[in-house]
Design goal:
This protein has 14 helices and 13 strands. α12 packs parallel to α14. The chain is globular, with a radius of gyration of 22 Å. The structure holds pyridoxal-5'-phosphate (PLP).
Length: about 425
Amino acid sequence: MIDRNDCEALDHSTDRTGDSLAGFSARFASGPPGTLYLDANSVGPMPLAAPEHVGRALDQGWRVARRRGWNETDWLDQPAALGASLSRVLGAGAGDVLVADSTTINQHKLLHHALGLNSPRNVVVVERDVFPSNRYAAQAAVALRSARLRDIANAGELGQALAAGDVAVVALSLVDYRSSARLDLVGLTRLIHAHGALALWDLSHAAGAVAVALERAGADFAVGCGYKYLCGGPGAPAWLYIHPRHAKSAVWPALAGWMGHADTFAFDPGYRPAEGVLRHQSGTPAVIANAAMSAAADIWRDVDPHILDARHRSLTDLLIRLVDEQCADLGVTVASPREHAKRGGHVTLRFGEVRGDGDAGALAQALVDAGVVVSSRKPDALRLAPHPLTARHVELWDAVARLRALLLSGQWRDPRYRRASV
Ligand SMILES: Cc1ncc(COP(=O)(O)O)c(C=O)c1O
């Protein structure tokens, strides 16, 4: 049985080892005292420098430089510069990542791009239970391009879905947003390529939590949220990735615009796509949001993805063990894979007596009141997502102890918690 002292000792020993990430937590602002924040898959912690970066963009940029800000500061370069800073943690080349728009918009853009690149093939394969926005993007893409959608229940059906040789692109989430089950990025990309199709991956629940190697895996395209583990702030711009083998293609982006033109300020009446990811920057960048994101990007440049991965493993393996030891007798089960390589950022729990719609939301809300911030997904999943750059092992011990106390007291059944939160 692990006790609280063991967890503290673990923190001390990782603090002492030269390869620890201990120094990084000091680069983030702490949350309210007493609150245990296990919701990095919704909104990651705030970099300490974020207010200063945003303040500078507002004061020196907006108030003082105003329009001259476009010439005198890095506003126009930010989408590519931020992408370059994130590329290390994504296992991508520095010029192959762009920060812009939302994950949903980037899904739309890259699905269309993939259909254009791999024409005349016209089938899009997508999982039935993938994050709904990704499905809607696939549905819209096939409707707009007179293409066809082929549903699969899970990645196990992929071989069969590809067999006819008509698939242009397969859109998969690396990590399931409910269970945190992680797919095999390398193996599935290879399978998709073996059938002449392209692979578009959503890494929202992996990037910034575990090591991913997009270029080595040969992934054609990828997208992901900037506000989750990447800590870009609420509503932060998302990122998109394109493998260098597609950089020189002549295929237009779905949303051609002046910022994605090969020569933006030529004001050429004819469109010519910029190289690689740059063509997918359709319009004016979100300067203030990018300023907040730049504080996180500065941190990501310094993070070794393998050390991040090791810290994530240490934290989430411990979390699973603590839940097993302290809550199994209360009907709590771990719904995420137990093997770290098969798990994404969060750990999902299920509850014997939490079954009805809204129950998981009520339990999550009661936990928030008990000082443990988590998220839920209907009907019965609770997601616990420690951020590997800031969370401490002892916090996980405290969180699981509070969960046990809450379940024992039954307080989460109070009617005020029935109004489930997001
Ligand atoms: C896996 C996944 N994909 C896509 C999205 C949508 O992202 P956005 O709302 O930024 O478009 C989310 C949002 O949580 C998500 O979890």
